[in-house]
Amino acid sequence: MTDMLAVRNLEKVYTRSRLDRTPAFRLTADFTVAGPKVVGMMGPNGSGKTTLFELVTGSNTPTSGEVLVDGRNIHKVRTDQRDRLAIHYHQSYQVRRFRSFVPNALLQPAGSVYPIVHLFDEPQFNTQDGYIGFMLDFFRRLRGEGRLVFLCVHPNERFHLEIVEEICESFIFVEKGTVTPLADYAALVAHPPARTYLGDLLTERAA
To answer: Please, what are the domains in the chain?
Structure first.
């Protein structure tokens, strides 16, 4: 059976400059998601979360490794069809756009008409009446339709943790370019870097 998402030996290296090839930042990831689910993602600012999303959607080119969405290498798919495999919504639900210098005539068709992987980058959970429930129902509906949903959340209020505990079935924690898959919420809050990152929010939650 084909995994819905396979991130294989993925690496993205940014160097200090075109002349100085010393690595300034390195992201590494290797994980798979077999089927539909809601995955939460967290990590400090600058840790590589958005870079990972861009690599999964094909809007950023890896230094090495590959990303397979439903068995298709997204970096070999036509640029005008990559959002039929994986789509990246940035903050206020705007879709991320990108350019490519490889002619689409030399790339493969997506083989899909509707995004398989939906990546939400720090979605805004407005506390106005009914809004949070509406968004959670939306994420559940995508999952119910057989889609894979990623929620990248930067929790700064206790209710943000309550949201991800309720909706997310597994987690990914990103720190200094290292991507760590975690089985569930209990594994997230037991992961030492995540506990440091969440800090007082865990104490407030337990109070």
So the answer is: 5-206 (3.40.50.300)
